[in-house]
Amino acid sequence: MSTVLYALGRWSYRHPWRVLVSWLLLLALAGGGAAVFMKGTDNSFSIPGTEAQEGIALLDRSFPQASGTSAQMVVVAADGDSVADAPYRSDIGDAVSQFEDIDGVIAVTDPYDEMVSGMVAEDESAAIVRLQFDGQSTDVSDETKSQLEDVAADLRDTLPAGSQVAMGGDLFSTSVPALSLIEAVGVLIALFVLIVTFRSFAVAWFPLVSALIGVGLAIALIYVSTAFASISSTTPMLAIMLGLAVGIDYALFIVARHQDQVRAGEDPEESAARATGTAGSAVVFAGVTVLIALIGLGFAGIPFLTTMGIAAAVAVAIAVVVAITLTPALLGFAKERVAGWGHGRKHRGMPLPGRRRAAEADATEAADDSAPDDAHADTRAATRAQTLTPAAKKPNRWVMLVTKHPLITTLAVVITLGVVAIPAASLALALPNAGQQPESSQARQAYDLTAEHFGAGANGPLIMTGTIVTSTDPLGLMDDLKTEIEKVPGVREVALATPNETADTGLIQIVPETGPDDPATAELVRALRDLAPELKDEYGVDLLVTGFTAVGIDISDQLGAALLPFGIFVVGLSLILLMIVFRSIWVPLTAALGYLLSVLAAFGVVSAVFEWGWGADLLHVDKTGPVISFMPIILMGVLFGLAMDYQVFLVSRMREDYVHARRGASSHATRSARDIAIGAVRSGFTASARVVTAAAVIMFAVFAAFVPEGDSSIKPIALGLAAGIAIDAFLVRMTLVPAVMALLGDKAWWMPRWLDRVLPHFDIEGEAVERELSLADWPEPGTTAVVVGEDVGVLADGGKSVGEVALFDGATFRVEPGGTLIATGDPRATRAFALVAAGRLAPTDGRLRVAGHLLPERAAWVRGHVGLALLGDADDRVDSLRRALSGRAELVVIDGVDALDGAERDQAAALLRDATAALAARATAERTPALTLLLTSRTDSAALALLADAHRPALSTLTLQTGATRSSTTAEVNA
């Protein structure tokens, strides 16, 4: 992947206008699509398969006037007045008549109706007018809502001075999140951090431009999708928050790597390509972890949450693609100006890139002549320490302190985070309601007035419903059920108990003593459901508990139940991914445990603010209490991806230094393995701390900006993410992880051999790019060889265990255009050789270039351009060869030539002659293509016979021998 990104980065750098215009066109098209197809967001919450949802479905079928969403108007009389007296009674009656005439209103409950109780306060200080609608809240038009508010406003003007009228209820319980100037402050802080980090005004804009284009495209696509799917209003805001944060950070990692390389004298174009191949690989890995975690939100089995996760994942995916394409394009605009203040070549006396590379090559060659390979590699940390800038010396001093007293540091961090996590035990979950809206909101005013005069439970009535078709006395049955339910602790009153018009379905409206987001109300729902079987046995009615409040409680319960499996999924995934990247057991365990500490501490911060009220006024929290139900699972998913992001960028540099230091340990025999490991932790930390610090500060600023003026649904999520990022980056990744790794020493990089064999490899730091660049002139600059190999070998298990049987090893060979190589030996060895040459099998050792492409890095290209015929396994050997020669392949590998009989050999020879002639016919003034062959067989006689029939000379032969280990395998080349 890194080699593909390297090529993509170079192309984007060379064609900046094409890339920029392409993204702007995509943004314009998506924006136009959003303007045409957008249908608006949907704030109705449903959860298929739950009892509350089944109850709503039953009401839809048989009691439609009670199944839809509801609203209520609260009227509070002036001090000393009674709503039962004039003019309140008549004016409220007129308002009820006006409500009944509004489209969409299917039922209006008159508070003075003798069949209804609880609609007038006991002290007659207030009255409630309840309205029922056809469908859910999203089915009610804005025009209808406006008419309801107009009626309430007219009543407010008509009633005596000092009275209060407010419109609220389920219809107005959710608000649509909106951006404010406070969120822009987060972007400005990010810009300031970027300017300080890059020491350049021009370069600082690149991550912001990249992130804003990506966010704009993601939001436009989300609004387009509202034409085909139901999307909550929280989804776009979450996508903006995540897209901005990761978009800035991903571009930051690439630009920072590029700037460091340019300052070191690298050619800007080469540097942009290399930065995209190396840092871009880590960006892709980090983005994939976030994607998996967000898509994993489907664990909860709640449609709207799954949709939210997918939408946020789309925003992150776009941020990744924009970062690896648009960022190098923007660097192409800057050219050498990317170096920043005080780093111009005029001021530093820096040589031109070409001369600098030549000087470095000469110095490297001189060092190689005087020292063994990599003997000086373990001095990297010391060299880094000597060349540190003043800004880099601070993280260096920090990591020195942390690793000097690792046990004390580890205990201090764990104890601190444990204390911060204590409030998490008090965290309660609920869906948003009007009580969490700002006090200036009319819905919030209605909520508070209702709670004050009718009790908190009046804001979240429950409904019990069931089929009563078998009853001979529907009215008497409903009275009996009402009496039974009123006995349940937590029930304030039963406001209504009635059958429908056809007397086949009963409805019981229950007013709890506690509010809709109070844990006691959830206990009441469970108690009513526990009572239902007893009522069925006694009265023959199977009652379901439903209503807006019950749906919210069911969603909260299901989300709470999903946290453990989701946590296991996320932690398990992190262990596997990090084991693949770092080839270690302890590093992933440390990362996963650190992640758990960060999550629990973030939950603790949210609970301390929203449950305990610490700092609530400072953060403009209008009401303390339960937070939105899906906050924990979203925070776990997003923080997982970002934590792995920081882990990769920090620890990968530590591992890089450790590997190099271990290779050169022979020149420093006095240094122990533990000292080398600790030195690598310090040098790797110093090299990457600046960028990780900037990334964490930017993330924190973006998330924190959504807290003060954010929507009640977004506010706890933003606070949790901001706290989680700060805790994870600075306390876990930059303090706890180096301390634990210093405690473990070289054991931090231990992994069982069997596990190393099982796990795939992932090039996270662009090692393939570095290898390609180091072998760019091998075997010689501008080589004409079609296939060239040096000490190529393959072990039976892919080279993951010492002492395994070598299929072949030490093979050195070269084939020019139009030439032929015959490889002979054991059938397993020849088959492996054919697969390696055709890019189907990775070589274990040595160097191999096929058609100008290095293997295994460019295996994908080789597989697509090199023909392969495995004659030994083919049912029709001639047809297998024909397919390999199709597509005008100039290099064809044929395995098992000795499997051809006489007639098949004649046909095969004819196919080779035709392919050679076809290529010759394509000759131009600039180039003459020629068919190059690699043949394998037990002996060379069959291959020589085929070549003779095809009128092709045998240019070279290669004898492959198998052995127990690499050292016992030989190969010989006969020209």
Description:
The protein has a 6-stranded mixed β-sheet with strand order 16-17-18-13-19-20, with helices on both faces. A 4-stranded antiparallel β-sheet has the order 2-3-1-4, sandwiched between helices. The protein has a 4-stranded antiparallel β-sheet with strand order 7-8-6-9, with helices on both faces. The protein has 30 helices and 20 strands. Residues 345-392, 799-803 and 964-975 have low confidence and may be disordered. The two termini are 37 Å apart. The longest helix has 35 residues, at 548-582. The chain is an alpha/beta fold and 975 residues long. Strand 7 and strand 8 form a beta hairpin. Helix 19 (548-582) runs antiparallel to helix 20 (586-610). It is elongated. The protein folds into 5 domains: 2-39 and 177-356, Multidrug efflux transporter AcrB transmembrane domain (Multidrug efflux transporter AcrB transmembrane fold, Up-down Bundle); 62-173, Alpha-Beta Plaits, CATH 3.30.70.1150; 378-426 and 555-756, Multidrug efflux transporter AcrB transmembrane fold; 462-546, Alpha-Beta Plaits (2-Layer Sandwich), CATH 3.30.70.100; 775-974, Rossmann fold. It comes from Microbacterium kyungheense. Residues 343-380 are annotated as: Disordered. Its main location: membrane. This is RND superfamily putative drug exporter. InterPro entries: Acrflvin-R, MMPL_dom, Mycobact_MmpL, SSD.
